[in-house]
Amino acid sequence: MQSSSTPVPDVSVILPCAGYGTRFGAPYPKELHCLAPGVTVLDRSLEGVVELAKSGLNVRLVIVFGTHKLETVSYLARYADTFQMVFVYQNESCGPGLDGAIRSALPMTRGPVALVLPDIVVVGSDTPGKLLHALRQAEVAGWCVVAAEERNHDTLRQMGALAVAEVEGVLTVGAATDKPADPSGFNAFWGMVAVTQSEAHKLPDVVATGTPNPLAGAVALMVEGIVNFNTPTG
Q1: What's the pLDDT tens digit per position in 33-56?
Q2: Termini Cα distance of the chain
Q3: How many CB atoms sit inside 10 A of residue 228's CB?
């Protein structure tokens, strides 16, 4: 039997692009919103993933999409020489929403896994290498999040909220919940998640309700800011 020429990836990155982004309110996918000539939100959200490839890692990018996102699929062709890309339709049997998208992607992942959202941009001078740093931290701790400090309750209600505190000299997540109704007690939110291969099956629970959030106990790497582009264009 002829063996496949596709190399086994060193790391997999899940990029869920199947959402409708109704809050964004534009006639095009939110991740394709132009930030500068030739630069979209998607390009900015993938900066950390590009750094993984530049570091010498073989990166498999697993893109979850729906038929309404073919424009995004076409746009990603510019990364064909940078990543090993796998496109997966969101499987309705895996459930709707972001947790369903992650479940749809997991069978295609190999090695440690990072979750990167196409409408979330991490900002700051030292941010491009944060995802690589997070993956290295996850090797030891099991889970690691790239997060930004946030005290505004309205913002925390829309994000993956975290209670981050220093434990024995390491910033650690004490509690986590997605879009909390009561954001009191939370002081940050995450922008990217890194997890070991053995723990990756719990990734959907990061954004699900009614299940224990596996980010409790994760190492937190803080950045200057995280911008959520799933908001009205004005």
Answers
A1: 999 999 999 999 999 999 999 999
A2: 57
A3: 16
Cα–Cα distance measured from residue 42 to residue 87, given in angstroms and rounded to the nearest whole number: 16
Half-sphere exposure of 71 (CA within 13 A, CB side): 11
188 within 8 A of 162, measured Cβ to Cβ: yes
Structure-token pair, residue 189: 């939110």
Q: Distances from the Cα of 115 to the Cαs of 83, 137, 141, 175, 204, in angstroms? A: 15, 15, 16, 19, 10
Phi-psi region for residue 9, left (φ > 0), alpha (ψ -120 to 50) or beta? Answer: beta
Listed residue (215, 191, 204) closest to 91, CA to CA: 204
Which residues touch 129 (CB under 8 Å, ≥6 apart)?
Answer: 48, 51
Compute how many other C-beta atoms are within 10 angstroms of the C-beta atom of residue 138: 24
Low-confidence ranges of the chain (pLDDT < 70): 1-5, 21-27, 231-234
47-54 vs 130-141: helix axis angle to the nearest 10? 80
Residue 164 tokens read as 């981050």
